[in-house]
Protein 1
Amino acid sequence: MKVLSIVETAYRATAEEQDDTILWLNTMFKGADLDVSILLRGNAVNYLVNGQDASGLSFGGLELTHPPKIDEDIATLLDKGVPVHYVAEDLADRGIPTDKLVDGVKPVHRGELPALLGQYDQVWHW
């Protein structure tokens, strides 16, 4: 079974955990031999920016002791053979230049989404 996991909600639970729970979950699925791919859209395209640094982030007097390194999580997924796509227009809407992205991610334009979705047995949207 081929699964496309669409991540649109960014920074879900990253204050409580040291990673995005959905990216972590998909990493575990890949480890269990699920044929999974990722599509980042909306605010989640921010995950692709190399060198993000959330150290020093605090809420009131509570400081994050293990800040997320989501760009490294994306690189880990790629290293495990998980294709990572992103919606090109969502990246452009946020003013993120493509030369700042994690190497190996693949753009897809909105008009190409139906063809991409059609390549999968199941599509999960988070």
Protein 2
Amino acid sequence: MIRAKFFICSESAALDARLNTLSAFHIMEQLNAPAFPVVVPRLAILSLLERDEGDPAVVQLHLRMFSGVQQLFDGPMPVNFNQQFSARTIIDMHGVVIPAPGELRFLLMNVEETLASWTIVVNNVGQAGAQLYFPPPPPPAPANR
């Protein structure tokens, strides 16, 4: 049986092949946007998967992404365990368009079984305010005596 030990979304991620370690940078659990639709420039989906001895070394999983009830993505996620019993994966997505505030949900599926999920709360924070900065005033001119 294939199991997900963890499944998270972050802004970016790295897999160190030399040490076989996985790192996530800027984990996404909440997103604030002033207007919609909003584009998320980068999104990394990380997972640590395990398999049993009798499971195949290569499996075809499925990744689904929803904004509320609207499906934004549905695609294959091939995983190669390379004769090991655990596999680390990173899926990079660029330019993800989120149509509305609410919940952005990611599901990792094995056929119709949900192995893992991750939810990002998407908030509408209103129009961004502008902050003006002016240089400091010049010092007063010296008095003539």
